[in-house]
Amino acid sequence: MGRGGAYTSTHRDSEPEVIPTKIGIYGWRKRCLYFLVLLLLVLIIINFALTVWILKVLDFSIHGLGSIKITDNAISISEDVEFLKPVYASNIHANYVSESLQ
Questions:
Q1: What are the two backbone dihedrals, phi and then psi, of residue 28, each rounded to the nearest 5 degrees?
Q2: Which of 26, 29, 55, 96 is most open to solvent, judged by the fewest CB atoms within 10 Å of its CB?
């Protein structure tokens, strides 16, 4: 009655005969396991592709978010930017003179 085999005896005084049994995942369980692994792999690839697409569309980079560039002591905006909430700043400087002010 050990692992991996079933004991049968034809005679009372003889050695028990060990019939080997298969250990592992077989049949529909194996197919389901492969299907789940494949599904997980597809979901990971789709997630990675959507993440890269969002980063490209929103123009995220190491230096800033799109037209907003972040430096050590300042934030520079090169185009029109829309903020959803109020922005508080101690100083605001313009690096160029607008054509409408000339």
A1: -65, -30
A2: 96
Return d(Cα 4, Cα 18) in angstroms, integer: 9
Give the CA-trace dihedral at 62, 65, 67, 73, to 10 degrees.
Answer: -70
> In the structure encoding, which two tokens stand for residue 74, read together?
């300042």
Q: Is 2 helix (H, G, I), strand (E, B) or coil?
A: coil
Residue 77 and residue 68: Cα distance in Å, rounded? 5
Provide the whole-model pTM: 0.55
Q: Could you give the angle at the alpha carbon of 79 between the alpha carbons of 91 and 49, nearest 5°?
A: 115
State the Cα angle at 92 between 87 and 95, rounded to 5°: 130
Query: Phi/psi at 51 (nearest 5 deg)?
Result: -65, -45
| Cβ atoms 65, 57 nearer than 8 A | no
Backbone angles phi, psi at 36, to 5 degrees: -65, -40
- 11-56 pLDDT, tens digit per residue, is 566 777 888 888 888 899 999 999 999 999 999 999 999 999 999 9
